[in-house]
Amino acid sequence: MLDRRAEHTQGIKMKYLVAICMLIGLVSSEYVIKNKEDMLSYREACVKELKIPNELVEQYQKWVYPNDAQTQCYLKCVFTKFGLFDNQSGYNVENIHTQLSRGHANHDDVLHGQIEACLDKNEQGSNACEWAYRGADCLLKNHLKLVQQSLAPKS
What we know:
Blueprint: H1 2-28, H2 36-50, H3 54-60, H4 69-81, E1 85-86, E2 90-91, H5 93-100, H6 110-118, H7 128-151
Antiparallel strand pairs: 1-2
Helix pairs in contact: 2-4, 4-7, 5-6
């Protein structure tokens, strides 16, 4: 009888341990706010990976993104490195909102709805670069100031 109680207690302790580990995993997978240095690093890596010509890089540095195949893939690359886009599920609205609000997102507010309105589920069946470009274009046209502010050092 004593052995069964000890086994039962061990089983309960193990369940608690597993639950705690799962909670830690959930907390540690939360989106981490990126800064200007991160953006510059991602931009540089994507320029190298995709062999983006200097003429386009100069435009990107001015926040100008023409609708061409190289730019589309460049934006997909940058947003993917930011943890905001993935080829299968597209944009993560919560992560974008968290980034733009610098970690203080209320996912029930107006901004969340505006971000969501910019992003589609790729019903068109476009390639990932085109899909990423559509969302990025809308976000940058409608929220460029917030994007820029979200990358600035906290004061």
